[in-house]
Amino acid sequence: MTVDIRAARSEEMDEFRRVAAANLGTSPDIFKGVRPEYTLCAFQDGRLATSYAAWPLTMRFNGRALDAAGVTSVGTLPPYRRSGNLRRIVSRHFEMLHEEGQRPLAILLAAHTAIYQRYGYAVVSTRFRYQVDPRDIRFPDPPPAGGSLRELGPDEFQVLVDLYREFRRDRTGYIHRGRFTWEAGVLAPPPPSGALTRLVYEEGGRPLGYLVYATRPGPSAVPGPGQHLTVRDLVWLTPSAYRALWDCLGRLDQVDHLVWEWVPADDPLPHLLLEPRKLNPRAHDGLMGRIVDVDRALAGRCYPEDTALTFEVLDDLCPWNRGRRRLETSSEGGRVESTGKAPDVVLPVSTLAMLAFGQISASQAARMGRLEANRPEVLAEWDKALRTRHRPACADMF
């Protein structure tokens, strides 16, 4: 048996899409945007056995833009499983990212998190799912006056872009959307017999939020309430915008089944409704993140405190990450250098990713046994230095 790890060629992309689709149980058409140069596959005895690709993404990292590799299309045909192909690909991909020096993070949305935790990934965000009857979207007080909603026209795409950019500016995990990302996700065609609606909330002519949702008929053929509604995207810059958009959803009398799959962990709605349990919230894994280059990743993030932290990283797969470091933090970014000093904490690279994204704090990690604190008194300082302005989240599939 011979195994060759390389990018797929143009003439091999149909087979790439077939392998990825077979593993994920979906249509090969959803992989049409993947270019050969994004791929890194395992060919076993000349046959494409394992598909793998990475989008060149830019992600918000506590208010700064950081380039990241968005891993996607991962799949192995059944005859070739348990043969180590994915580990070979991941190891080579991390080496390439390190050598290129441009994308210090790899991120993905996993069907099975256990697969990727073997390679130093960690769950770095939690998303929630709401399933609610719009008639249960009720508030204890009337909506604030002063603003208005209107439907966006087909030539007002830039309104969405500008609002999304402002919304994601100080956040962690949200990706920069190009036109393809918009059209393949939030603005994708509605389901058969359905409709896509784009609303913007304005005050004094200034856009302050938007709502994109798709509706489709319910299972009953009897006229009346029964439509299904899926929230595609919800962005708000002010509390009044947020409230107005949900008030609108609560007035959709023809809908009895509303779902929002990509709810951020710090979404305000449960703290505003008369009956928050009616949202039927369910927690799910969100982003998984892997720090491929510790020095560049931590330098590419901004921090709310000016301080210095010493730590030792444990990393089985990326030897260049191992060792003791000193991180100097500031609102402008971080500065990382090697040090011979005894570390305040010792932690695996997966825990470091959870701290850097703001998924958990250092104190929480210590209580969980995810890091070893040689000086427990410094954990409060770590908590302050690594806190994020918002809980980590991502609103896009990739």
Account of the 3D structure:
By secondary structure, this protein is of the alpha+beta class. The protein has three domains: 3-103, Aminopeptidase; 128-285, Gcn5-related N-acetyltransferase (GNAT) (Aminopeptidase, 3-Layer(aba) Sandwich); 288-386, SCP2 sterol-binding domain (Nonspecific Lipid-transfer Protein, Chain A). The protein has helices at 13-24, 85-100, 113-117, 157-168, 179-184, 239-250, 294-299, 349-357, 362-368, 379-386; strands at 3-6, 41-44, 47-61, 64-76, 105-108, 122-123, 126-132, 148-151, 195-203, 206-216, 227-236, 255-263, 282-285, 288-291, 307-314, 323-330, 333-338, 345-348, 372-373. The strands form three sheets. The protein has a seven-stranded mixed β-sheet, sandwiched between helices. Strand 4 (64-76), helix 2 (85-100) and strand 5 form a beta-alpha-beta unit. The model has no long low-confidence stretch (mean pLDDT 95).
Helix % is 10-25%
Shape: globular
Strand order of the biggest β-sheet: 1-2-3-4-5-14-6
- CATH class identity of the largest domain: Alpha Beta
Q: Low-confidence segments, ≥5 residues, pLDDT <50? A: none
Compute the separation of the termini in Å: 33 Å
Q: What percentage of the residues does DSSP assign to strands (E)?
A: 25-35%
Quantity of strands, as a count: 19
Structural class: alpha+beta
Q: Main β-sheet, in a few words? A: 7 strands, mixed
Named at the architecture level, the CATH assignment of the largest domain is 3-Layer(aba) Sandwich
* Average predicted local confidence, pLDDT: 95
The CATH topology of the largest domain is what?
Answer: Aminopeptidase
Order of helices and strands: EHEEEHEHEEEHHEEEHEEEHEEEEHHEH
CATH superfamily of the largest domain: Gcn5-related N-acetyltransferase (GNAT)
User: What's the number of domains?
Assistant: 3
| Rg from Cα | 23 Å
Number of helices, where a helix is a run of at least 4 consecutive DSSP H or I residues: 10
